[in-house]
Each structure stands twice: as structure tokens, then as C-alpha cells.
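hey can u check if this looks right to u? its 213 residues, i copy pasted from the old doc so theres a chance i mangled smth
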Amino acid sequence: MKDLNRRLFLTASAAAPVALAASGPASAALGDISLKAALEGRKSSRRFATTPVPEDALLRLLWAANGVNRPESGGLTSPSWRSANDTVIYIATADGLFRHVNDKNTLEKISDTDIRAASSDSAFVARAPALLIFVSDGEALRKAAEGADEQALAVGAHVNAAIAAQNVYLACVAEGLGTCLIGGAANREAIATELKLPEGSIVTYIQPVGTAR
């Protein structure tokens, strides 16, 4: 955590108008607030306005969660157990389902289906403008943690996702957005089916995002 100092300067790529894509470094940045202010403002929100999350803001949140902050080495904004880098983030919106391509900070559309309502029995999840879905790439995790048992792998997957989710919490404060992390109320089997995940993948958490009200 040595890169964190008195100021929280999180930069990310600016979104292109099509496919929520971005290219190259951008001057657009998360709100310039102190780390102390971001931590003081961190809270869970479960009531959201229906206003969509702007594309550039969403990409900045995703960069904060799991983006590349050291292009020369491919280092990420969030650490992971045994450097597995197994966390993959999907985004469900009214416009469909997207996968975050973290090395480019772009979104790849994979479906026109809105799976927010299927992702949880909690009604506020379906109403949130954007839903982040954290998935552990089982192949990457097992390769990095060779010899680990299934319980250790599950713990590692959840810890890695939770670290990325905390980055989203802090970034939401900087962006003036609300969020909350959901574990037990996530319909993991339904999500895995909708995402067509390969065997061994682990759906860890979901995290709705929107303007809090």
C-alpha cells in the first residue's frame, strides 16, 4: 500500500461513446479528494436513483477496482493472493452485460440481456443502474496457487474480490456515487449460468452502483 499517500489521485481512461471503450491514458480523473475524506465517506447505500452511471465514471470505478496502474509491469490497483490476478469483473445494466477488459480499461459487450433481477432476490439490486459482478478465474487461481485445497482457493478468491470491491467503495465517494457489497444475497448459480462461466470459476460478490438517494 506504499503508493497510497495523503492524496487519492486515481486516474483512468476516458470512455469512447461506443461500447464504453477507452484508449490510452486520460486526463479524466476521479474526484481529487484526500484519502482521509474518502475513508470518512465510505458507506453502504441500498437506495439508488434510476439515472444511469456515466460511462466515463463507470470506467474510472473499474480502473480503481482492478485496473493497470503500472503499465511497464502490468501491475494492478488491487493486490491478489499469490499474485493470481484472477478477479474478473462483469457489469450488468439495462443495456446488457459487459466484461471489463482490465489491461485496456474497456468494456466488452457479451450479451444484450439484462441479468440484474436474476442476480439477487433483493429488489434494490435490480433497480441499481449498474451491477458489478466479481468472478474468480478458476484456471488462473489454481495455476497461481498450485497445490492449494478447495477451501483455500475459495478464501483466496473472495479476499481478492473484496479488496477490489473496497477500491470501488472509495472511488464511489470520489465520484459522488453509492454502492454496497453483497455476498449471501447473490444468486451465484443463476449468475454463473447467465455468464456461461467455465467449470471452476467462482462467483464471489455482486456490487450495485448508482447515485444514492
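The chain has seven helices and ten strands.
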